[in-house]
Amino acid sequence: MATEIHAVRRETAAPATGRPATPDLLAFAALLLVLIAAPYVLYPVFVMKVLCFALFACAFNLLIGFAGLLSFGHAAFFGGAAYITAHTVKVWGLPPELGILLGTAFSATLGLAFGALAIRRQGIYFAMITLALSQMVFFMALQLKFTGGEDGIQAVPRGHLFGVIDLSNSLSMYYFVLAVFLFGFVVIWRTVHSPFGQVLKAIRENEPRAISLGYRTDHYKLMAFVLSATLAGLAGGTKAIVFQLATLTDVQWQMSGAVVLMTLLGGIGTLFGPVVGAALVVTLENYLAASNLPVPVVIGVIFVACVLLFRRGIVGEIAARFGGKRS
Amino acid sequence: MIARLLAGAALAALAVGSAQAQQGKVSGDVVKIGVLNDRSGLYADLGGEGSVVAVRMAVEEVGGKILGKSIEVVAADHQNKPDIGSNLSREWIDRDGVDVIVDVPNSGVALAVQEVTREKKKIFLMQGPATSRLTGDACSPTGFHWAYDTRALAVGTGQAIVKEGGKSWFFLTADYAFGHQLETDTAAQVKKAGGAVVGAVRAPLNTADFSSFLLQAQSSGAQVIGLANAGGDTITSIKQASEFGLTQSGQQKLAGLLIFLSDVHALGLQVAQDLVLTTGFYWDMDDEKRAWSEKYKAKTGKMPTMVQAGSYSSVKHYLKAIEAAGTDDGATVSAKMKEMSVNDMFAKNGKILPNGRMVHDMYLARVKKPSESKGPWDYYEIIRTIPGDEAFATLAESGCKLPG
Amino acid sequence: MSTIFGIPPQALFGQLLLGLINGSFYALLSLGLAVIFGMLNVINFAHGALYMLGAFVAWLLLTMAGIGYWWALLLAPLVVGAFGVLLEKTLLSRLYKLDHLYGLLLTFGLALIVEGVFRHFYGVSGQPYPIPDLLRGGQNLGFMFLPNYRGWVVVASLVVCLATWYAIERTKLGAYLRAATENPVLVQAFGINVPLMITATYGFGVALAGLAGVLAAPIYQVSPLMGSNLIIVVFAVVVIGGMGSILGAVLTGYGLGLLEGLTKVFYPEASNIVVFVIMAVVLLIKPAGLFGRER
Question: How does the UniProt record describe the way this protein sits in the membrane (chain C) (predicted)?
Answer without folding.
Answer: Multi-pass membrane protein
